């Protein structure tokens, strides 16, 4: 078998879920990561496993990062790597029992990560830096007095830049351009020059190459099983090309570099392939006399776990609702949707909302992260491992999350509120992805700028404005009703509502009861009741039009669609229209067949 038959590509998830969508701190440049790579291999307790106490020492004591930022990187990596739902629920239980910072620190001290993989994770934070120029002159570690301040052009705080986290072409380009530096971080200190660069004749151990599995994977021949990169390099056609020695269990650096460069290709399960050859589904709905079309592309029928994706684009003035195994465990991208109501009520891997406006999105539990970018007047309701918002305005987020919401540069008028809805299978879905009701940090956002955590007293133009968000006042709070019938046992908001918000609801309910009592005591005759009913209904319809809620109700009326076909012609699988049913006037109505 020829070496050309083996393909290696960048994995999607480290870039999609691991790279924070903000220009990285200058303290994570290659200059300092090389220093860190040497440090962790020459100090006890840092290699091959790096615990939180040692990372905090390196990050805060050596790199002089704020502790909150050091924990953010550590926590993000921990979310990215594989944990069973049971392990995540156990960790959530431990955290929920912490009543002080010292108890919280004791729990965090139990966490550890793979040292080399964590180094690679820190390196790929450079994905969202426009230029990867590294400083060639500088002290051993950053100095409080002489820390090099990057120029505005180096900070790359442009919120309008392309979202590279989803861009598999950008992932490939990043790895191709910086593969030599990535491999250098894996070389043992004894084989490095005084400047920290790897010598040409140095070797990389098999254990170190195993850590590359965070970033790379591949297969032998198209359509074969996906394998970690170290397996492809130690047997078959690539073993000789990569120079692997079974005696020393190592690779010559220069041969390994050439072999990987020769074998690198675009991810066959990435967004490019999904748009080109995935199942492209479309549905049409008559709205206000004009035919509007929305499109979905998905690879869930053939992609391995971790690479499943569903891409939704241009849902306009429609309600899309789905609970389906096709969504379970998928990375979802919702792009350029407007005046839409989207319900994706399945356990999801991640969700990205990009350039959406005037829409409501209700999600099933999201195992890793929900990222909102470039959106306007969007309401998102979710249970998620992590939430991030950047370059968005007039958005409202109702969340249940164990981590602090990230507010990135470019936001204005963001409202944070408690999670306020449920559907019958919600708690089962939460358990399946390891999300619990506590701890819940929805109201403690973290403002992240180009040089780390934002200090409100030292705000800069490239950082989030501390006044960019507010907590939803209880007086403005209402619960959300998911308007579908489903199977399941959940009949209330998991974990309940925070006391001030529950009190506000109780007060509203009391006013309703007082109003009903007043109407009853008025003792209206039949004609007066009819006139009063007409007046109330007129005012109600007036309110529906003024608030835009009329559109949401109208979009729940099912339309008859004769057939649903691929954009390429052949009919798709029959949509399971009985997954959910619309509730209208107290009666269930079958939903429009919108397959995804």
TrEMBL record:
Query: Residues in domain C-CAP/cofactor C-like?
Result: 304-451
Which Pfam family, any one, appears in the UniProt record?
TBCC
Entry annotated with the keyword Cytoplasm:
yes
Q: Which SMART domains does the protein's record reference? A: CARP
Annotated region described as Disordered, given as residue ranges: 141-163, 564-596
The UniProt regions of compositional bias labelled Polar residues, in chain numbering, are: 564-575
Name the InterPro entries for this protein: C-CAP_CF_C-like, CAP/MinC_C, CAP_C_sf, CARP_motif, TBCC1, Tubulin-bd_cofactor_C_dom
Identify the domain of life: Eukaryota
A biological process (GO) of this protein is: maintenance of centrosome location
Q: State the family it belongs to.
A: Belongs to the TBCC family.
The protein's name is: TBCC domain-containing protein 1
Species: Seriola dumerili
């Amino acid at each position: 078998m020829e070496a050309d038959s083996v393909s290696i590509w960048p994995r999607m998830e480290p870039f999609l879920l691991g790279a924070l969508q903000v220009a990285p701190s200058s303290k994570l440049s290659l200059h300092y990561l090389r220093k860190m790579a040497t440090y962790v291999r020459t100090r006890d307790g840092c290699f091959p496993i790096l615990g939180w106490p040692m990372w905090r020492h390196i990050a805060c004591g050596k790199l002089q990062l704020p502790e909150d930022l050091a924990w953010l990187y550590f926590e993000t990596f921990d979310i990215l790597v594989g944990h069973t739902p049971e392990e995540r629920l156990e960790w959530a239980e431990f955290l929920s029992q912490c009543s002080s910072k010292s108890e919280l620190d004791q729990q965090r001290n139990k966490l550890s990560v793979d040292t080399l993989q964590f180094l690679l994770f820190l390196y790929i934070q450079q994905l969202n830096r426009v230029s990867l120029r590294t400083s060639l002159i500088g002290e051993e570690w950053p100095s409080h007095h002489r820390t090099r301040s990057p120029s505005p052009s180096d900070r790359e705080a442009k919120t309008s830049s392309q979202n590279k986290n989803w861009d598999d072409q950008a992932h490939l380009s990043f790895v191709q351009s910086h593969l030599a530096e990535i491999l250098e971080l894996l070389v043992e200190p004894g084989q490095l020059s005084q400047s920290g660069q790897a010598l040409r004749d140095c070797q990389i151990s098999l254990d170190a190459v195993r850590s590359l599995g965070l970033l790379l994977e591949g297969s032998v021949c198209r359509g074969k099983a996906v394998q970690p990169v170290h397996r492809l390099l130690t047997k078959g056609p690539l073993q000789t090309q990569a120079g692997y020695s079974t005696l020393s269990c190592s690779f010559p650096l220069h041969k390994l570099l050439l072999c990987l460069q020769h074998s690198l290709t675009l991810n066959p399960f990435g967004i490019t392939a999904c748009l080109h050859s995935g199942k492209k589904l479309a549905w049409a709905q008559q709205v206000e006399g004009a035919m509007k079309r929305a499109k979905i592309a998905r690879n869930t029928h053939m992609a391995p776990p971790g690479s499943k994706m569903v891409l939704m684009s241009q849902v306009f003035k429609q309600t899309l609702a789905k609970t389906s195994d096709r969504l379970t465990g998928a990375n979802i991208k919702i792009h350029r949707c407007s005046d839409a109501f989207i319900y994706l009520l399945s356990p999801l891997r991640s969700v990205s909302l990009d350039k959406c406006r005037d829409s409501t999105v209700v999600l099933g539990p999201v195992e890793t992260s929900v990222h909102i970018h470039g959106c306007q007047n969007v309401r998102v309701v979710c249970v998620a491992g992590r939430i991030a918002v950047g370059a968005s305005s007039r958005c409202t987020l109702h969340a249940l999350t164990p981590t602090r919401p990230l507010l990135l540069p470019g936001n204005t008028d963001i409202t944070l509120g408690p999670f306020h809805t449920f559907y019958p299978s919600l708690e089962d879905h939460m358990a399946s992805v390891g999300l619990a009701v506590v701890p819940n940090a929805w109201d403690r956002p973290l403002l992240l700028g180009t040089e780390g955590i934002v200090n409100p007293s030292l705000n800069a133009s490239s950082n989030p404005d501390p006044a960019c968000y507010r907590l939803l006042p209880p007086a403005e709070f209402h619960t959300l009703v998911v308007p579908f019938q489903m199977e399941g046992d959940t009949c209330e908001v998991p974990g309940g509502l925070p006391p001030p918000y529950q009190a506000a609801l109780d007060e509203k309910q009391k006013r309703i009861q007082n109003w009903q009592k007043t109407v009853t005591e008025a003792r209206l005759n039949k004609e007066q009741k009819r006139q009063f009913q007409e007046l109330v209904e007129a005012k109600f319809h007036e309110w529906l039009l003024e608030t835009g809620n009329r559109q949401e109700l109208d979009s729940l009326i099912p339309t008859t669609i004769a057939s649903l076909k691929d954009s390429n012609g052949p009919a798709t699988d029959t949509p399971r229209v009985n997954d959910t049913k619309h509730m209208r006037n107290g009666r269930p109505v079958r939903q429009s067949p919108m397959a995804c």
